[in-house]
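hiii, so i know i said id send this last week but things got crazy w the move. better late than never?? heres the sequnce for the chain we talked about at the cafe, plus the structure i predicted for it. fair warning i was half asleep when i ran it
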Amino acid sequence: MAMLVAAFAGACKKKEAGTGTGTATGTGTGTASGSGTGTGTGAVPPVDAAPAARADVAAFTAVFDPLYARLDHVERARTSCEARAKLLEAVNAIDKATPPAGREAQAWLEGVEAVQVAIDEMGDPCDEGNIKAIEAKLESAKASLNTITK
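okay and structure toks below
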């Protein structure tokens, strides 16, 4: 998510009129036209930091997102259980008492606590090797994470 914010900020440069040229190679017939744009040197104010750009939330997503993105459910469950302590440490480090500017404090608190509960409750399913239950906890954590990173 932090990379998305950075990519978005980098893409928000001031556009100025310009001209473009290009060449094409190949065989066949047809017509072509071209145009271009340039970027100016005027500074654009940075995009306001989204909640995911907060260091505490970014630290959690840096651990969670690569695990959640795995397509193989068995591998995702196994690696998530192995990383459970690191996930708990990262989610517990999120400052629940200080919601991002413009966010309602109670909704922020509930969202962070829901992520904490989902990760914490992975313990028994991890011990039992219950992949479906681990997946359910990961889905719950992801849904709750989405509420605090909006």
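btw The longest helix spans residues 131-148. thought thatd interest u
miss u guys!!
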